[in-house]
Fold these 4 entries.
Entry 1:
Amino acid sequence: MGTMLHVAVWEADDAVATASLRAARDAVTRLDSLLSNYRADSDVTRVNGAAGSGEWVHVAEETADMVALSLEFARETSGAFDPTVGPVVDTWGFYRETGAIPPPAALDSARALIGWQRVEVARDPARVRLPAAGMRLDFGAIGKGYAVDAALAAARAAGARRVMVDLGGNIGVTGGGPDGAWPIGLRHPRYPELPFAVVDLQEGDAVATSGDYERFFVHDGVRYAHIIDPRTGWPVQEIASVSALAPNGTISDVLSTTLFVVGVERGCALIADLPGVAAVWVLAPGVGETDTPLRAVVGGPAAHRIEVGSGLVVSTCDDAVR
Ligand code: AMP
Ligand code: MG
């Protein structure tokens, strides 16, 4: 998945601790081997390679689960989250480190390949089919959160009671932390060493952050980053980061990306009725705006659990919709 895994277990029994750490790591390794876009032999790479051939590709049950779940989230977010956005991400070059604004014709043909509604998934046996050549599945916006949930479940099954899993900034916990709670610092989108906020994770909670600092390029002073609005094919430019607190890792990962795409106003409406969910948007500074404090918006039913530090100008979803 192109990132680092960090698992912490608080446990008196050495054997249980070791078994739990291994189980967590194995669960993530297993999903990585199925879902990674970086591996030539993963289920996802094989499905993408067969796109447009008419052939069904046999996959592991977990892969079919991931596809079905992603399509459900795509439906629920009206396509703001879309696991088929890959060809457009590729056109912008974020993963090649040679990013540039694509020629309109290239962008148009890549956009024509987006469409979660066209992904086919079936069971007994588990299989997936993409109808058009060039279509691709990309679980970059959900896979890490999903793997956090799998790692926590595996560690629990191996006997651990107090576990924290951090997979590239997707953080999930089970049981109480070393001092009862799990205060997690959220990374400032411009000063990585300074958390700009703290969120209190409780049993089963997870938090994920999507940022414009992860994969991006700058052209004429404008930052183009890796989260794409599937309706336009263009990177979202108004947001620097979104952190989402949710009852599990999968939802927090999907939400961080989705809320980045839909922005503050639609995002506030989207999470208003989701129990246990909270989000904080950090708005992108304007071009040349380097000395002004960044603005943050906090919202969602669990908003009280996110505490933003004094370095930012904070408002709430209530202010935003008023
Ligand atoms: P995250 O860091 O979880 O927000 O995931 C970002 C990654 O998800 C990007 O690098 C792309 O591979 C992919 N992606 C970008 N835009 C979208 C989108 N609108 N829906 C789903 N995946 C996306
Ligand atoms: Mg995400």
Entry 2:
Amino acid sequence: MEKKWWHKKCAYQIYPKSFLDTNGDGIGDLKGIINKLDYLKGLGVDFIWLSPVYPSPMKDNGYDISDYYGIDPAFGTMEEMDRLIAEAKKRDMGIIMDLVVNHSSDQHKWFREAVKNPEGKYGKYYYIMDGKDQNPPNNWRSYFGGSVWEKLPGYENKFYLHLFAKEQPDLNWENEELREEIYKMVNWWLEKGLAGFRIDAIINIKKDLTWQSFEADGPDGLCGIQNMLKNAKGVGVFLRELRDRCFRPHDAFTVGEVFDITEDQLEEFAGDNGYFSSMFAFGHCMTGHEGSYWHEYRPVDFKEWRARIFQDQVRTAGLVYESNIIENHDEPRGASNFIPEEDYGFPSVSALAAISILQHGLPFLYQGQEIGMTNCRFESIEEYDDISTKDCYQAAILAGLTKEEALESCYRYSRDNARTPMQWNSSKNAGFTAGTPWLKVNPNYRSINVAAQEKEYGSILNYYKRLLAFRKSEEYGDLFAYGSFQSAYEDTENILAFFREDDTKKILVLCNYSSKESSVVLKEEYNNIIFVNYPKVTQIGNTQKLLPYQLIVAEYEK
Ligand code: GLC
Ligand code: CA
């Protein structure tokens, strides 16, 4: 694998709406992000990915963009955006924006023009089709529930395509004029000095142009989008063009939100000559995801989770530099998803952190992860904001679950778990806002917050700082970036372990990922311990004793 300028960095995702509000309107803003740049620098962050801050009617919290060249007034101004980019640069940090170009908002001027004149220039920017006797052209189900087709306002038998919400009409990438608009916009941002983009839902830009219906897979008579994605060939033509026209000339860092590709496509997507610099390693996040709705999911099973992590590391070895996450704005909190609730605490959260960050790939943190923020209980479905939570709740009720059971599945998987305001301190609203927060603050902010953890040497926050410094250190930085990955001790119960090795160094990351004490009979004697999450490490003969969630990093003679 070719060495790239961004390989030894660490990234952090900000969900701007929930990060820090500086004007008391209850919504996080760009000024709030600027205020916290030193905090992020101190944590060890090099790249900051901002979830969308473009003007948006916020039907999907900014993933419905009505103007690609602006900043939503709720977040601030373009001057503030420029200042953020400049202030980040001063600190040797890069800003990455979200590139949401599978769809626009239905309030984008292109779509409004399309509604006025579906046969005209802008009608061709979208997918507008005639229905079958006023029924939708086919039976595809949108990601947020219901048909992907919505009647074009004012027409009896014309429908437009939306794979996500009906307020997110899909852009027609087959149309060269539309593609040119997008490239112009991407270059405009890159010329402003962005370090790159996180690329949203990108696999969806190629449609199955036969528009065939598929066998229904639910009582609604519809079928999941995955069917059409399997039949949509040729997304690479668009992605290559996007790369060559925009990303390459700027040497931008790009990370794709890529689902639904096969193993043999990994290199094509994110290899040395891939469409993107990197892509998220989502495999392990899918542990327990059975069926299409949350109430069908199973809690994370350790063995399955570990197998998925290893599988991903092995299949990308030497080919792809993935981006590793345990959570994001669409996922539950990692500390709630990958740790049984009764085990939550410093040992478990710190173990999970090291497992993620010491793997091969680019470490990506999500806001609040560094203090161990958790899922949040909402009292009723009305308290939730997220569009997909409403859909999954409804599906659970339709499947015969009680309200309590349906809410329980939202507590486990709702996207709002990660979107509750950042917990800065123990004052009102966790120091997030002086006004009324747009979404409930997790009541555990009184004990889980940045200010408290900054004061405590042994806090999760300070541990994360040491962990990122270790990962990026002069001494071990190359090993973690480029060293090989080899799973270890898979047959010992509850153990998650792997070797990282290069020409000059060899280390073992060894963790007892359980609440019970454990021990491992070491096959090979290590030289010394270089990183820990417990003060004391006990070895008797060649048996390594491990306390609950104890993690050690041991170095071997080489
Ligand atoms: C991506 C985003 C998600 C959004 C969707 C539609 O999956 O991460 O938040 O709802 O795309 O843009
Ligand atoms: Ca604000």
Entry 3:
Amino acid sequence: MTQKVTVRLPISPDDVEGEAARRVLGEAAQVLHSGGLVAFPTETVYGLGANALNGEAVAGIFRAKQRPAWDPLIVHVANFAMLDRVVAEVSPRARNLMDAFWPGPLTFLLRRRDTVPDAVTAGRPLVAVRMPVHPVAHALIALADLPVAAPSANRFSRPSATTAQHVLEDLDGRIDLVLDGGATGWGLESTVIEVTESSIRLYRPGAISAEAIEAIAGPVEVYHASAESEATPESLPSPGVGMRHYAPNARLVPVDVGAAPESEQQARWIEAVREQAGENQAVAVMLPTGWPLPENFRGRQYLWGQWSEDRELAHRLFTGLRTLDSLQVEKILCPLPAPVGLGAAIRDRLRKAARED
Ligand code: TXA
Ligand code: MG
């Protein structure tokens, strides 16, 4: 692909109405209108955006990320009028959930309109949509007045980007512009659901927990791909559920430390580290605050955050994996949080990052 000059423009999320911010947003909207690629912060992770109604522009996303064409993209909208430009209908159940969680990190699979190019949905009848709450994302989409297709702004299968620096590590020279609005809030991608009359199917646990959705709309069924179907992710109802993903270059080894109390989890952790790291200097750990290491541990450590604070763990997860990767370690050991609330999303990412396919 042709090399581009990637421009990085700072923008303050607290002042998107200011004159400097309007100039930056105007430039970014212009790039979108002319079919270019703009990375921008959202409340989850950075997105790599293109005009969702322009198939050529969308094809550019796949080239820049080196993403296979069968993995469809989420379309981001700024308001309900824009939603109507891309989806054919919204059921009352789905609308109820939108009223509860939009703008915010919840993505819906809905029947698409013909205006949405095949490239966006990988030829599928459903399109993924969400309305982000991050001021920069919202202001950009509203100003451009375009639905914006945006996957996470990382090279395919790498950890998602939660800062503009991460975006540039993966995509410098491959995209036109990155809006640098600082670190993203949640640090983990949106929750992906499909709402039908009889069920709510959850394909990707994310910033909005299954419990929070259940409190509004009733039972949520968590989708698990079978081992055979995972071999061909392009045939899954949502390809992302069955892939190696979010992965550092080092081999990631999740350590199942069981359930609370934390002292027992720490005991399992230290045992696992003793066994799997020994004195090997090329082994690194994602270490919760205050957790012990064996006395003969010689590897590197990333201080992850308070084990009881799942928001902090989510926020720092991808930065941790990228930081340890930059130290060129061979193996990263990481404890698995309990599958409750955001912990379910963190586990999901670590499990997918640990896959060997
Ligand atoms: O938080 C997020 O969702 C971020 C920000 C930028 O909005 N975006 C993001 O996009 O994580 P991406 O492309 O990295 O992940 C989208 C997930 C993938 O697992 C994909 O397989 C699934 O959504 N998906 C997208 N469109 C779909 C469709 N039409 N049918 C089924 N699954 C779809
Ligand atoms: Mg992604």
Entry 4:
Amino acid sequence: MKTKLEHILQQTQEYRPEDQELVKSAYLFAEQAHEGQRRENGSPYFSHIFATASLLADWRMPAPLIAAGFLHDVPEDTKHSLSDIEKHFGKDIASLVEGETKLSALKYRGKERYAENLRKMFLAIAQDIRVVIIKFADRVDNMRTLNIFPEDKRKRIARETLEIYAPIANRLGMGEVKGILEDLAFQYVFPEEYEWVKILVEEELKNRKQYLNHARTLIEQKFRNAGIPYLEIHGRTKRVYSLYKKLLKHDRDIAKIYDLVAVRIIVKSVADCYTALGAVHNLFTPLKGRIKDYIAQPKPNGYQSLHTTVFCEEGKIIEFQIRTAEMHEEAEYGIAAHWRYTEERGGGSPPPAKQVRWMQDLVRIQKELRDEKTFLKTLEELKIDVFQNRIFVFTPNGDVLDLPEGSTPVDFAYLVHTDLGNHCVRAQINGDIAPLDAPLKSGDIVKIITDQKRNGPSTQWLKFAKTRHAREKIRAGAHYGIAKLLKKMLPGGSDGASKKNRS
Ligand code: MN
């Protein structure tokens, strides 16, 4: 049997010798560092490390990413520190590993309204898209081995995968990763729905695959006879979770899903795409309104292809997807396609680590990825942090709040709850006691200390409160405080009465 080391060397055999050396030394370092550690089910911890690095090699990521994949859990789980890694492997790899450690602190606790913030924060913390790619590999392996954890942990991780990881993969155009993660998470998050779709698909696939193969043979013949050049024609089956979402939109009726199976045609050039589309329509009648030109108008995440749904023999309906090899590569790997190892890029050395903190500009990036020089320029421009006016802080149980820069514990308290704001007296920031006007920064864990005896907010707070929400509450609450005070002073006024008024 092949050893793990032989396996990884084989995966990277086309890489430059120095790149292979790097992968090998990271392998040996990690294997020794995790020596003796076991996972929840008793298997060696290094299996997870190896699987993560191995996926990165499968995706043909450059050697520093594979190396960082091997080292990603070292500072957190072993006696070796980040500076040990820097000593052995240099600054760049150490910074990738550091990103992994930081990201692992971010946890989704199932509050819908925080999901989008958490996604933004995920990218803001990662800073370098390569860190995100490594994290995806780590997560794919964690999802594949999720059954080793107790039920509640499984559910939490699977929901996090579905709400945070898969949408980010989608926005980065990484269709392959998005699909794998969604399908792995589906069975844990919606077990009954998963069973339903699985059985539904099994039955339906049998007969659809039959006429798919038939249609494929016909189109291949047509292409050969007409001398239309193509690189590849293959069938593809829709992924389970994306099928499920589509079923929900179509009365749960699988007969209304035309792209359960599809024929994919890969050609050399954009011109060949349109030629191929013509040939398909020449052979089969297209359905009205079902021709989609995502080449002229790419999807928001950059996806490009021509789609058409046609009638095959006996009125059977089938979808064709036509694209160039580059479009195919980008549909599968998205932003990671740029780093994929190729001969001409000589070792696939990645663009230098850049600050990538954006969301809105992804579409632009996707388009400009096609041109290496513009891509580097774009990354340079993107150093302008789109989050520069926002900060993200944590509540003690890990929820993320999105606040304007310069916000204080008072703004934080009012965002959580009016009552918390009205009774706050001081704060605890990252465990240290702090005054109510202390400016917060991204990543702070903020705990509000209250005193129920407090008579509402102080107008002094208006001097430092940043958010409109907090300022409104302070003004309203201050009136309430005065009213309460007056009531106390008037004969017959009591605390009990004012409490009743409040509710
Ligand atoms: Mn890991």
